[in-house]
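Subject: Protein record for review, amino acid sequence with backbone structure tokens
Why sent: The fold of this protein is of interest and is recorded here as tokens.
Enclosed: The protein record, placed directly beneath this head.
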Amino acid sequence: MHTNHVRPVRTVRPLSRQLDLNLLDLFETIYRTRNLTQSGSQLGLTQPAVSRGLARLREMYGDALFVRQQRGVSPTPFADSLVGQIAQALEIVRATIRRPTFAPEHETRTFRVAMSDIGERLFLPRLMTCVTRHAPRVVVEVVSPAEGELRDGLASGQIDLAVGYLGNLSKQMHQRRLFTERFVYVARRDHPQITAPLRREQLRELSHVVAGPTGMLHAAAVEKVLSSPRVRACVALRVHSFLGVGPVVASTDLVSAVPSNLAATVAEHMGLQLLEPPVRFPTFEVALIWHQRFHGDPGNEWLRAMFASLFGGSAF
């Protein structure tokens, strides 16, 4: 007949009950100063508190650790064997509560920024001039995701920052306005139907190009006005890229409502005229958007500050 012997279950005490980080701090300070009074002064502890702490350390390790000498204390050989590991453990813990920093001149980080083609044309020349000067090892990668991909990318950290006319993506997003933008009309300078300021009635006779960069709200805002009962304009061409609008308008009789900064940038060298809209298009906010998770990230903060200093409230 076999008898089953059941081993008693060994209760493992939580590490927090076995070990007090304050005691390790006390150990390291005593080891460094070789003086209990000086250690207490540096740690803000009374002499009785230091004595109690040292008694707990001795009990925990089963060793005297520090022996009184004529002046101060001296570590035992066992204390000598512990000091390196304790110092390393304390440094690891301290590093977890030390706020990270971002030193642009030394960083090698890659930032992924979501923006439209118009954003690339307007933002990147000045942005990269500044980045290459102040953060020569930083890489900027531009992406143009759809709205769902943008939202997921910002939440996961795959996309660091979005800039443009994006609306409210979610309650977890932070938003900072850079500037307010408006739409103006562009047409070729020798357009046969445009000899005076545009009138609302003319819009029904003019064929339009509407641009709608992926993930942005420009196209919806323009088409809502053009299709309204008071306007009923014809849309002959829809494109994803704003940068494609200028060449098309310059070589045809089509017209287009585009953001004013882009219009001012391309009009002169493409032979375009800028016209005030005879109908009211909504103004819109060009903003920075980032996720709550990365609000305190030093690198993200640095990039946001650079955008704000370069483009906040300023004309191009």
Remarks:
- The chain has eleven helices and twelve strands.
